[in-house]
Amino acid sequence: MSGSVVAIAGGVAGALLIAAALISLMWFCRSKHPRNRNSETGSSDPSALAEWNRGGPSGSTARISGPRQFSLEELEQATKQFDDSNLIGYGSFGSVYKGLLRDGTVVAIKRRPGTPRLEFIAEVSYLLEIRHRTLVTLLGYCIESGFQMLVFEYLPNGSISNHLYYGMLSLILYGTKFHFSYLHISLAVLTETGQDPPIKLEFKRRISIALDAATGLYHLHSLKPPLLHRSFKTSNVLVDENFIAKVSDAGLSRLLERIEEAGPSSQTSATAFQDPEAGVSGIFSEMSDVYSFGVFLLELVTGVPAPDAESLGPHRNLMQWVESRQKSNNLVDRRLLGTFTSEGIRDFIRLALLCIVLPGIKRPKMDMIVLELERIREKEMALTTFMGEGTAIITPGSELFT
Length: 402
Prior knowledge:
- Its EC number is 2.7.11.1.
- Its main location: membrane.
- The strands form two sheets. The chain has a five-stranded antiparallel sheet. A two-stranded antiparallel ribbon has the order 6-7.
- It has 15 helices and seven strands.
- It has two domains: about 1-200, 2-Layer Sandwich (Phosphorylase Kinase, domain 1); about 200-235 and about 270-400, Transferase(Phosphotransferase) domain 1 (Transferase(Phosphotransferase), domain 1), CATH 1.10.510.10.
- Helix 1 packs across helix 7, helix 8 (about 205-220) runs antiparallel to helix 11 (about 285-300) and helix 8 runs antiparallel to helix 15.
- The chain is of the alpha+beta class.
- The chain is globular.
- Mean pLDDT is about 75; it is low at about 1-65, about 170-195, about 260-270 and about 385-400.
């Protein structure tokens, strides 16, 4: 199996270059500090914030007037004057710093050059009102000294990318062509978390992570009007200390479109997660997010980054990539062996393929995806409880769809 993993590396090198720049972005975007609306929120009031940091009563809310505007002095103090030692990543919104607020709240601060604009404040005010237990919480903003800054809650276990791709670091040591920045960022992430190796992600845990992420996207799509993520990917799924997953960067693509000098940074370049139809038409829809979610499911199954269009070549698509791995019995992450049932893994893969089917009109909506993942998880829990962990029959990849 190790030989097959090395073989995959060449096919996914292109995807890794893109995943690299994003692994640290979502990794560190978390703190503990809320506002008003929906489940599991709090407020900018210190007492409410303290309760949030203690875990707080589920579903607690507090009403405040307007978004919280942090002062530059407060954020400089939190990051030691934005010292490089607190720089934890880069993303579409610029540099990301880990900070410690005066009240003890750990936050992730995203900073980019930009002048004060009404569009920025209006959009941030809208995003601050979106609250859900499966979404990374935006706490507030700051616009001073020629910078636009966003303050997010910080999650200690970082992105799922780090936990899935951890084993890929070994490929670098074997001479695979990886960009140096991927090595640098990945090692920085591992140092930051102190996890070596990351927590094992058995199949049932991956189902739960997928369900949390699907619930987050479903919440965005259920808003009126719906909010499209447009940049959903594995590195945008973060996990807290209990490995509860949350979707990060919801609304950032929309925000970047509305502020000056958004430029190419606001438009995600073509990656494995981009819906081919949206790439051609330039029109994004809920089905575009569904496609991205399907690629996320495939990465949860394979444990490796999905290849982008350039890596696949002119006459192949992601569906064919999956089929080729099935035929070579190299589809399922070897770290999953002994933790799943054949029926469970088959249903999970089928759902992933349904999410990336073309044309997009044939894809399920997020509410149906949530229901299906709940069904798969419940059935998998029941079967493995009855059979015992590790006793599942492993079906070869080539037989999964017969």
